[in-house]
Each structure stands twice: as structure tokens, then as C-alpha cells.
């Protein structure tokens, strides 16, 4: 029997495992390995601070997410030997015939000097990519009565690049509805020329931000946070004072993959699994596939991207097992619902070649993101069913 091992029980790993179970049935032994038994709906983290989603509904036991016949192993992956086809774990090593790497990003708050101290020792720093910080931020917003609200981004790639923009816009809207907008300044930084990389959504966002007096600091490379002085310092000497800070945590590949395997060799900074951007097959090891935040394909790192990649990985892995040439191609599709204010959102959809959706704010986009997608995510997407385009 063919042995398939999936590393990671996050979005990409869960979707792919369930798809493979239905495609291959009892002809394959499928094992998912993850050190955590908790699966979080991460798109909720920028909604929780404003009370737009129920925080208690955003987590599931991963063992409830897998179809019958999939084995879940709770263990910490420490390395991968693709020549011997072995996943090295803290408890017991696991052999495989085919490997799917979906290990996601590693959040590293310690990589920004002062970030951890500000988070743990003050009431003004909330790195909202962490669930605990997103939860605590809700009370911080309720107590906030004006000042400078700052969202910063690290010098690393990040999951959901639209989340910092959404946090900024929702916070500005929250201040308006609370009646403290005139007493509050809103600033977002990014170490790039623009706050959003894809047109025509970028220009529409610039228009919205100009109309709402939200400031964007371009090419701002965060060097350190001084929680005592309440200042963010950039590498070029610029400083931004804050009263409330929402820094995006630096993000990297998992050390078990970047340091414990050769799978990232050839990628930029050695942080990402090197794959063909269309077939999602490893460039050196034909029996290895990767998807989601852990690989180096030039797509936006979102759940919507992983959702499309999972089908490509499952199709191509099935073909490989059956002796056929993998033919499925990933288009680079990604989607980002850009929530601009309570009740309004713009859907940014694009692939490797072009933008897909129009840059239009609508209530329907808000309803889709806040009221529809969480249920679709838990009940359909994670199980490999994909009713939406």
C-alpha cells in the first residue's frame, strides 16, 4: 500500500489529506503529522478585536477535521531525509513513499527587538497575528480614547498580506463610530513602495486612504520597537511614535524544514521549499510536493491560494502514483477580501497573470467574508469540497 505523509494540519495540509483520501480510497495509507491538535481560523484574528466574529468559534480539534481512514500523529517534526524517505520526529520517525509539505509559517516575535517586551510588559503593543494578542486587543480598543494607532509590517514575507491593511481600515472606522476619529492618527508601514502589490486594488485603496486621512509610510524597514519610549524605529533613522501599536510579527519557514532538510535549498534565504510554481512538485525530489505558506511559488500567501493548490497537489500526486505524468497546473490564484469598514469590503482576486475581480466596495463582499466564509471553511473547504469559483 502507498504511504503518504502530510506535514502540517493547517489549511493546506487538511484540505490535501481529505482530497487524497477520497481520490485514493483504501489504496493509500495517509498520515498527517502536526505538533498541535488545535486548528485556528486565522482570518478571524483581525476581526476578533472589533467583535465582528465570536472568538470562541474560531478553533477546532484537528482530529475532527479529517475523513475516516486518515491517521493523525501528534508529534514534532524535526527534519526530513528525502533520500531515505523518512520524516524525523521528536518521538518516532515515519517512513513515506510520497510527502506533502504544508508546514506553514513560523511566527518569530523575538526577531524584532522590543516586540516581545512591548507585548508582554505593556498595554500598548498587540501583535495580532497571534490569537492571544488579537483577543487582548479587543479590550485595548474599547479603552482607547485617541492618539496614534500604528500598524507595522516586518521585512519578511507574511501570510495574508492584506491583513495589516484590513486592521488599519477597521481600526479607523472603529474610531469614527466611537467618536474619537478627530483625536486619532492612523499610520501603516511597509518595507515596500506600496501598501498593496496588485492593481487595480492598490489605486482604489490609495483613494480610500486619502479620503479617510490614513497615512502610509513606504519603504519603512522596522529595526526595533522601544516600548518604554513608545517608538518604532526604522533602519534609515525614521521614528514613529505610537499610543497603540499592532505590529505584524516576522515570519519564516519552519526550522525542521529549513535547517533539518535539503528541501529549501535554492530558495531565497533558504526559507521556503523549492517547487515548480505550476505543478507544486519539488524541483529535485519528484515524490515531494508542497503548498501554502511554506513554499517558494510567487503567489500571495493566503488560505484561498492553499485552497486551489490542494486540488493541484492531490491531482498530481494521484497521477504520479498511477504512473501518469502530473498534468494539473496551479494558476497562482489568490483572493483577499479587503474589509474597508464595518459592512463594506472589496474582493481582490488575482493570479500569476492578471487581476480577476473589480475593485468595488460592497456589502455583499462583507457578508461573504464575515458571515459566509467561516462556515464554508470549516464545513467544506477543509474537507476538500470547493463549491465556490
Instruction: Kindly state the percentage of residues in helix.
Output: 25-40%
Distance between the termini: 34 Å
What multimeric state do the chains show? single chain
Overall tally of domains: 2
Major sheet characteristics? 5 strands, parallel
Question: What does this 3D model show about the protein?
Answer:
This protein is of the alpha/beta class and 389 residues long. The chain is 26% helix and 25% strand. The strands form seven sheets. It has a five-stranded parallel sheet, with helices on one face. A four-stranded parallel sheet has the order 13-12-11-17, covered by helices on one side. Helix 4 (163-178) links the parallel strand 11 and strand 12.
Features:
22 strands, FAD/NAD(P)-binding domain, alpha/beta, five-stranded parallel sheet, globular, 389 residues, single chain, 2 domains
Write the SSE topology:
Layout: E1 2-7, H1 11-24, E2 28-34, E3 38-40, E4 59-61, E5 70-74, E6 77-81, E7 86-89, E8 94-95, E9 98-101, E10 105-107, H2 115-121, H3 131-143, E11 147-152, H4 163-178, E12 184-189, H5 201-212, E13 215-217, E14 222-226, E15 231-234, E16 239-241, E17 244-247, E18 251-253, H6 255-258, E19 288-290, H7 303-321, E20 334-341, E21 344-350, E22 361-362, H8 363-379
Parallel strand pairs: 1-2, 1-9, 2-5, 9-19, 11-12, 11-17, 12-13
Antiparallel strand pairs: 3-4, 6-7, 7-8, 10-18, 14-15, 15-16, 20-21, 21-22
GO molecular function: FAD binding; sulfide:quinone oxidoreductase activity
Domain FAD/NAD(P)-binding: 3-119
InterPro entries: FAD/NAD-bd_sf (IPR036188), FAD/NAD-binding_dom (IPR023753), Sulphide_quinone_reductase (IPR015904)
Amino acid at each position: 500500500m502507498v504511504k503518504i505523509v502530510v506535514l502540517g494540519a493547517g489549511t493546506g495540509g487538511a484540505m490535501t489529506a481529505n482530497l487524497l483520501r477520497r481520490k485514493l480510497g483504501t489504496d493509500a495509507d495517509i498520515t498527517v503529522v502536526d505538533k498541535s491538535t488545535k486548528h485556528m481560523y486565522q482570518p478571524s484574528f483581525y476581526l476578533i478585536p472589533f467583535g465582528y466574529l465570536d472568538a470562541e468559534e474560531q478553533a477546532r480539534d484537528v482530529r475532527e477535521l479529517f475523513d475516516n481512514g486518515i491517521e493523525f500523529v501528534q508529534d514534532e517534526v524535526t527534519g526530513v531525509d528525502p533520500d531515505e524517505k523518512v520524516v524525523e520526529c521528536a518521538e518516532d520517525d515515519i517512513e513515506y513513499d510520497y510527502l506533502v509539505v504544508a508546514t506553514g509559517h513560523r511566527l518569530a516575535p523575538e526577531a524584532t527587538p522590543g516586540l516581545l517586551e512591548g507585548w508582554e510588559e505593556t498595554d500598548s503593543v498587540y501583535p495580532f497575528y497571534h490569537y492571544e494578542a488579537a483577543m487582548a486587543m479587543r479590550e485595548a480598543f474599547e479603552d482607547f480614547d485617541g492618539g496614534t494607532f500604528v500598524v507595522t509590517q516586518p521585512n519578511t514575507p507574511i501570510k495574508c498580506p492584506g491583513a495589516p491593511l484590513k486592521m488599519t481600515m477597521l481600526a479607523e472606522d472603529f474610531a469614527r463610530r466611537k467618536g474619537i476619529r478627530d483625536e486619532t492618527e492612523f499610520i501603516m508601514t511597509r518595507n515596500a513602495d506600496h501598501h498593496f502589490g496588485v492593481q487595480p486594488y492598490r489605486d482604489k485603496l490609495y483613494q480610500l486612504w486619502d479620503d479617510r486621512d490614513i497615512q502610509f509610510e513606504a519603504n519603512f524597514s522596522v529595526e526595533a520597537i522601544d516600548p518604554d519610549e513608545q517608538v518604532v524605529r526604522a533602519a534609515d533613522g525614521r521614528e514613529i511614535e505610537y499610543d497603540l501599536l499592532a505590529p505584524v510579527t516576522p515570519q519564516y519557514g519552519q526550522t525542521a524544514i529549513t535547517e533539518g532538510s535539503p528541501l529549501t535549498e535554492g530558495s531565497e534565504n533558504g526559507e521556503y521549499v523549492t517547487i515548480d510554481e505550476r505543478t507544486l512538485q519539488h524541483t529535485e525530489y519528484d515524490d515531494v510536493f508542497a503548498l501554502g505558506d511554506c513554499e517558494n511559488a510567487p503567489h500571495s500567501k493566503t488560505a484561498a491560494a492553499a485552497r486551489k493548490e490542494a486540488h493541484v497537489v492531490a491531482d498530481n500526486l494521484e497521477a504520479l502514483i498511477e504512473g501518469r505524468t502530473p498534468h494539473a497546473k496551479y494558476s497562482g490564484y489568490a483572493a483577499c477580501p479587503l474589509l474597508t469598514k464595518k459592512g463594506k469590503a472589496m474582493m481582490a482576486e488575482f493570479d500569476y497573470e492578471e487581476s480577476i475581480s473589480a475593485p468595488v466596495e460592497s456589502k455583499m463582499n462583507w457578508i461573504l467574508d464575515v458571515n459566509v466564509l467561516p462556515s464554508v471553511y470549516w464545513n467544506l473547504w477543509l474537507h476538500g469540497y470547493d463549491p465556490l469559483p
